[in-house]
Specification:
By secondary structure, the protein is an alpha/beta fold. The protein contains 8 helices and 8 strands.
């Protein structure tokens, strides 16, 4: 049987297009695997009993969150925002830190970031690890999980790392104002002000960890949501802590995940994805990425898991302080390893 030349050409075109599509899909699949495949394995199984140190840490975290999240605290309620800032300054000072204020004015009202530095004993001022969290709440919410949990975690990391000793990099603890709308991703966002100042001073930041909404966990199947198609690759239970960075920070994300998994018996996931995927840059690490610094977010994934996100129900009782303590203990060891890396 003779096949018409037109049919032959049509079939050849279809095969070429099919091969091209297969090639494109293969490249996309490889790209997805690169940005989602992390070192070691996430912890599975029952969580071990809390150590006495972790139990005490959970109590301190609860006390901080209880104080910070008494009411909405932002520039809609400036007195409450000032009360939180004053509390944070006092806590850091009680630990022996010299607290620096980075003050600026928004709509005629004074606001400030707070900074405390643990200098390297061997090479102060040469390299810096930034550990930060925003302390303001969104509108109409006391912000217990978002972000009193991250704020409390910064305080307790500052406490536990105070006498770490032989770090080769400074550790800079920063508490930011004005992360929430209407200032998010604007020049008036506290972390934007801070990151730009570091860049202007030519500070060499080797890693920035933004601690963002860290205290809500669920073992129920379906409790964790994702932007498509990530649900095909990650667990449906919202019982893990996530380390999230942009594609350019894949190396940092993998380093941090490897460190956390190597010594922390707690579920963890990591991703380094394009910033157009919703959620990838939804925190203060975005300001440092914009400034050219390696940065990532440590989070319970906030709106992809937490049903009370940016609502009046974001209250103390929603936070799982035992799991938060486990995570903060793991992050302490991560920061220690980052600060001890050889130059």
């Amino acid at each position: 049987m003779r096949v018409h030349p037109f049919v032959v050409r049509l079939l050849q075109s279809v095969l070429r297009i099919s091969a091209a599509l297969v090639g494109v899909l293969a490249v996309l699949a490889c790209g997805v695997l690169v940005m989602t495949t992390m070192p070691l394995h996430s912890y599975r199984g029952a969580l071990p009993a809390l150590t006495p140190q972790e139990s005490a840490l959970a109590d301190r975290l609860r006390a901080h969150v209880s104080t910070v999240a008494q009411q909405e605290h932002n520039l809609r309620n400036p007195a409450a925002l000032e009360a939180v800032a004053t509390y944070l300054e006092r806590q850091l000072a009680l630990m022996g830190y010299a607290v620096e204020r980075q003050e600026y004015t928004v709509a005629g009202k004074p606001v400030r970031n707070l900074q405390a530095i643990l200098p390297s004993r061997t090479a102060p001022g040469q390299r810096t690890v930034v550990v930060g969290a925003h302390y303001d709440s969104a509108h109409h919410t006391p912000g217990a999980n978002d972000n009193a949990t991250g704020t409390a975690a910064v305080l307790e990391l500052a406490r536990s790392l105070r006498d770490m000793g032989d770090a080769s990099a400074d550790i800079m603890f920063v508490l930011y104002t004005n992360e929430e709308p209407p200032y998010f991703k604007t020049p008036l966002m506290g972390s934007q002000v801070h990151a730009k100042a570091l860049a202007a001073q030519k500070t060499r930041v080797i890693a920035m960890l933004s601690l963002e909404t860290m205290g809500y966990y669920s073992d129920v199947a379906g409790s964790q949501k994702y932007p498509w198609p990530l649900s095909l690759l990650y667990p449906s239970e919202g019982n893990f802590i996530a380390f999230v960075g942009a594609t350019g920070d894949l190396g940092l994300v993998r380093t941090v995940v490897r460190s956390f998994r190597s010594h922390t018996s707690f579920p963890s996931e990591g991703i380094a994805a394009p910033r157009f995927i919703p959620g990838v840059d939804y925190s203060d690490h975005a300001a440092y990425i914009d400034a050219g610094y390696p940065a990532l977010m440590v989070t319970d994934t906030a709106p992809y898991r937490y049903p009370h996100y940016h609502s009046s129900q974001d209250t103390l009782d929603k936070v799982d302080f035992e799991r938060l303590a486990r995570v903060v203990s793991g992050v302490e060891r991560v920061v220690t390893e980052l600060a001890r890396q050889a130059p």
